[in-house]
Design a protein that fits this description.
With about 150 residues, this protein is α+β, with helices and mostly antiparallel strands. It is about 35% helix and about 30% strand. The strands form two sheets. It has a four-stranded antiparallel β-sheet. Helix 3 crosses helix 4. The relative contact order is 0.20.
Length: about 150
């Protein structure tokens, strides 16, 4: 994996080449066969997944297909800083290449490169806040109004 691979990742767009090189050293890349499950809904989240090539499908038992993520997408980033259960199953919709940043590696990054770790957390929070804002109209439609209707 190269810094050029990481430049296409929205989450990493504000990182310098030097920071991307540092990140590339701790990411573990993996080629994944079509149909293989990356993680299961309900399993403990252990880190961030970066889609480098191909497509990953997110599914939930309750809601079915949730999203298709392609090159440059990330998922599971909040599990870097807080333990919790996965909200969906992620599977390779086609053969793909992904990179993993495990929580333990991130914690070493916090010790060794605190500014880089802080930039990653800021980017995760920015992306999460954007996702929440996009979901608010849907959430508002599903909530009862003040008059009970």
């Amino acid at each position: 994996m190269t810094t050029a691979d990481l430049k296409s990742v929205v989450l990493f767009r504000e990182l310098s080449d030097e920071e991307l090189e540092c990140l590339a050293e701790i990411l573990e890349d993996e080629d994944v066969a079509a149909g293989r499950v990356l993680f299961e809904e309900g399993s403990e989240g252990e880190g961030l997944v970066v889609v480098l090539e191909g497509t990953v499908e997110l599914e939930s038992r309750e809601h079915g297909s949730l999203a298709r993520l392609s090159e440059g997408a990330t998922l599971g980033g909040l599990s870097l800083v807080t333990p919790g259960r996965r909200e969906a199953t992620a599977l390779a919709a086609e053969a793909c290449s992904v990179a993993w940043l495990e929580r333990g590696s991130f914690r070493r990054l916090v010790d060794d490169e605190p500014r880089l770790a802080c930039k990653l957390v800021e980017a995760l929070l920015r992306d999460t806040a954007g996702d929440l804002r996009e979901g608010l109209p849907t959430l508002r439609q599903s909530l009862p109004s003040a008059d009970g209707q």
